[in-house]
Structure formats: structure tokens, C-alpha cells
Amino acid sequence: MTIKWGIISTANIAQKAVIPGIKESETGEVYAIASRNLGNAKETAEELEIPVAYGSYEELLADPDIDAVYIPLPNHLHKEWSIKAMEAGKHVLCEKPIALNTKEALEMEAASEKAGVILAEAFMYRYHPRYQKIQEIIQSGEIGAIRGIHGAFTFNNAAAKENVRFRKDWGGGSLYDVGVYPISAARMILNEEPQAATVHAFFSEQHDHVDMMASGILEFDHGVALTFDCGMWADFRNRLEILGTEGRIEIPSAFVTNQNQQDHFYLYTSNGTKEVEVPYVNQYALQADVIGHSIQKNKTLPFPVADAILNMKVLDACLTSAEERKRIEITKG
User: Fold this and answer.
1) Which residues of the chain have pLDDT under 50?
2) What are the two backbone dihedrals, phi and then psi, of residue 256, each rounded to the nearest 5 degrees?
3) CA-CA to 166 of 20 to 30 Å: which in 74, 133, 144, 198?
4) CATH label of the domain that carries residue 19
5) pTM over 0.85
6) CA–CA gap between residue 165 and residue 207 (Å, rounded)
7) Cβ 238 vs Cβ 183: under 8 Å
8) Per DSSP, what are the bridge partners of residue 250?
9) How far apart are CA 90 and CA 66, in angstroms?
10) In this structure, what CATH number is given to the domain that contains residue 277?
């Protein structure tokens, strides 16, 4: 059974990354795309060789041939259209962050359970095989006990004043857009949830007062912390460092990769420096296949919607800390 995907929106991330990824996957095909402008939908469908184009999201959701939908809409629309898609019986891959806050994410989880469909958050980097290798190195004890993690994801898009990332009421800001990557990575690597967050941010008057740069610390057990920074008005960086008592792992291109970049990472120990070579893979294709296999075989996702809710709780705390300029404890449960 091939999974037939519908794409809700002609967003750039869909055209440049997710649609090519689904096409490269073993389990899926891109069957339809929708835009609120039929002309845009038809133009994109023709350019990307997608069989069906719709002039509304509702028409796409009404198509009985579509099994799953990908939603790359602005953040404030994630909940609405994910729930509508699930109520139409479609499995959903929703772009990160899954919602604007934990309350919305919980409502989306309830809708997925009621409809009996999969709801997944689009963090493609987690499916890259290098992270399995990294976990194996950590578990082997080669770098000793983990003492800290540092992540950075920044880029400069400040001149594009009309970008949806710069609308505060739409869920704009660097924490929502790229801060979620090092946050989710630390949770994945440590396999635990942080206890508190402290974040300092630069809120730009030129960009509807969204956080254009944020630096933070998440407190984990045993004195371990994630220190991170994220930004949309800074030079491009996309890296992660895992520091242990006996060594460290550096991932120069930790979240976004392409065929012109190395996906390799580096292991530093008393035995010297080792470049761990990882063949190029399409992270978006791997993501589509994990979801596709889960649909086909009725398997539980490795990162179910419960993980998205936990990540959202951390993001809520980070945003509150930045706005109120204080440390925020993260409650369990």
C-alpha cells in the first residue's frame, strides 16, 4: 500500500524539502496539493509533477484517495487544520512547532485519538542514522558521563519584513522557528525532561516584537544543562556539541543538511580526533518512511504526539522566561 499524501499549502519548506523527500521515500507519493489560490496550486502541481491541485484546503481533505496530509501552514493554523484533517480521517504530519502552546497540543492529541489516526511533528533530523550512531557512542561510555550539551541554530532573514515568522500573533519568533531544534535534540539525547528554563531574548520593534535572538539554559538532572541560542537576525549556524567527562561529540551541521554538505560528525577523546563518516541521506524521505511504515503496519511512532506535547511544555517555559525575564520551573505531568 502506497501512502498518498496531500500537501496543505504551497509553502517553501513543502516545495523545497518535504515534497521531494516524500517523492524519494519508499512508502509514499505526493498525490495532491492545495492552496487558497487555485492558480498557485496548479502552478506548483505542474512544476513539481503532482497529479491533483485544489483551490481550497477543504477540497483536499474531502478527497477520499488521500491517506495523509502534510501541514506547513503558519504556526497559528497548525491546530485548526490538523484537527480538521484528522476529523476527515487523514493521518497528519504537522510542521514544528506542533502548536502555539501545550493546551493546543493536548487538543490535537485528543483529536488524533478520537479519529484513530497518526499525528506527528515534523522534526526530520531525528530520523537521520547518525543520531543512532551518536547514541551508541554515548552508551558505550567512550566520552564518559555527559556534562552538558550546547546547540545553536541561527540565520539572518531580518530583511524579509513580511515573512510570517515576524508576526507575533501567528506564532512568530526564533524560539518557535529554530529554538525548538536544540531543545528537542537535548531531550532526545538525554532521554529526559528538563526541570527549568531561563531564556534571555532580543525582541525587535522592527519585527512585531517577536524574539529575533534568544539564548537560554535548560536544567536537567544531575547538574546537566542544555545551553543554546537561536536567532533569525544572525549569521548562519546549525550545530550541536555533546560534552562528556572523557571526550566530546561535535556535529557541525546538526539539523539541516544537503547534498553539498557533509553529514559527518567528530569524536574527540584522549585517543585523538575521529571523523565519523555518514553517507548523505534525505532526512525528509526517512521521515516520510517512518510515518508511512507506521500507517501501513499500524506501528507506534518512535516520536509520538506525546513527545510533541512535552517539547511544547518546554517551549512554553522558554517563551515565558524570555518575556518575564525570570527562571521558569517546568512541572511534570
Assistant:
1) none
2) -105, 130
3) 198
4) 3.40.50.720
5) yes
6) 9
7) no
8) 241, 266
9) 7
10) 3.30.360.10
In-domain check, residue 100: yes
pLDDT of residue 16: 96
Please tell me the distance from the alpha carbon of residue 89 to that of residue 108, in angstroms, as a whole number. 14
pLDDT in tens, 264-310: 999 999 999 999 988 889 999 999 999 999 999 998 999 999 999 99
Taking the C-alpha atoms of residue 54 and residue 41, their distance in angstroms, rounded to an integer, is 6
- Euclidean distance between CA atoms 317 and 130, whole angstroms: 29
**All cell numbers assigned to 136:** 551508541
Residue 171 lies in a domain: yes
Separation of alpha carbons 268 and 51, rounded Å: 49
Asked if 151 and 239 count as a contact pair (C-beta separation under 8 A), the reply is yes
Phi and psi, residue 4, nearest 5°: -90, 120
The span from the CA of 252 to the CA of 208, in Å, is 32
| Alpha helix ranges (H) inside the chain | 12-13, 19-24, 38-48, 57-62, 78-87, 102-115, 129-140, 174, 180-190, 283-297, 305-324
pLDDT tens-place string over residues 282-294: 999 999 999 999 9
Read out DSSP for 105-129? Answer: HHHHHHHHHHHT--EEEE-GGGGSH
Q: Residue 16 in contact with residue 7, Cβ under 8 Å? A: no
